[in-house]
Amino acid sequence: MLTRAVYPGTVKTLEEEFNLHKLWLAPDPDKMVVELAPTLRVIAGGYGCNADFLAKFPKLELVANFGVGYDTIDVQYCKKHGIRATNSPDVLNDEVADTAMGLLLCTARQLVVGDRFVREGKWLKGPMPLTTNITGKTMGIVGLGRIGQAIADRATAFKMNIVYHNRSKKDVPYKYYPNLVDMARDVDVLMVIIPGGAETSKLISREVMEALGPTGILINVARGTVVDEQAMIDLLKSGKLGAAGLDVFEKEPQVPQALIEMTENVVLQPHVGSATHATRTAMGQLMIDNIKAHFAGKPLLTEVPETKG
Ligand code: GLV
Ligand code: GLV
User: Fold this and answer.
1) Per-residue pLDDT of the chain (309 residues; tens, 9 = 90+)
2) Which residues are catalytic?
């Protein structure tokens, strides 16, 4: 069963290779769940895979997620019931890192504001206000995983200074901050790319954003839940936080009206970090390869750590 509309080419391949049931297109999804419950072996796509949902399928063997973040799969439940889970890491590292740098350039150099400035004829009346450089500035990366490293590589090429906060110190040439508030105080840009879920909920708190301060730029390409969204809105409105570039939100696809109205210091994207044809194809292929490996009794390619043997 595929839970949601993933890349169309991926859906097509799944249809060709498996007995596929498309939950999001079912006229009556509850009925489909009831009908499949006694026999279903694999859930593909991910999303909404909480314990209540997973418990409906006693024969379930695998949850194959489309995406690197698997915060919408209850992996503790999976572990307890011998269900394995896979995600699609690595193939999207460069894409998400590109999105992150794009959001940074759009906020610091006001590229979206500049676009509007030209279209609205404001240029004819005088030059656009000056913007902020990123060369020589310090970027604090929250979550130095594989995507975080790809962002660090890019920011280094932009001649930025890199520091990071992570659960554990890594063998990297960047300064490590065990304390997030301390890091936020010292950086110009806070780059958030830490996994979502209960552990990181509202990790980017009011205190962290206040420490980042009136000239600070917050970029979030992780999960909306990682940031205290209401605190962020308050601080952006009152000028206590400089700017934000956001690809993710607490209640997607709902975006708070307050963010929509802040057109000068906020840049918004509709959760498109990995959304290119090539990368979505690669993510889909990896999901399919994991499902095939499972049915062939071979080792899974990218099993999430929590459900490993
Ligand atoms: C996208 O957000 C992903 O987790 O791959
Ligand atoms: C985290 O940043 C990852 O790529 O898993």
Assistant:
1) 999 999 999 999 999 999 999 999 999 999 999 999 999 999 999 999 999 999 999 999 999 999 999 999 999 999 999 999 999 999 999 999 999 999 999 999 999 999 999 999 999 999 999 999 999 999 999 999 999 999 999 999 999 999 999 999 999 999 999 999 999 999 999 999 999 999 999 999 999 999 999 999 999 999 999 999 999 999 999 999 999 999 999 999 999 999 999 999 999 999 999 999 999 999 999 999 999 999 999 999 999 999 997
2) 223, 252, 271
Task: Please report the domains of the chain, with CATH numbers, ordered by start residue.
Answer: 8-89+276-307 (3.40.50.720), 93-268 (3.40.50.720)
Q: Supply the residue whose CA is at minimum distance from atom 5 of ligand 1.
A: 67
45 residue type, one letter: G
**Confidence (pTM):** 0.95
ipTM metric = 0.61
Closest C-alpha among 274, 295, 309 to residue 91: 274
Number of the ligand 1 atom closest to the C-alpha atom of 92? 5
Strand runs (DSSP E) across the chain, as ranges?
42-45, 62-65, 84-86, 138-142, 161-165, 175-176, 189-192, 217-220, 243-246, 266-268
Which atom in ligand 2 lies closest to the alpha carbon of residue 93? 4
Q: Is 69 in the pocket of ligand 1 (CB under 6 A)?
A: yes
The residue nearest atom 1 of ligand 2, judged by CA position, is: 145
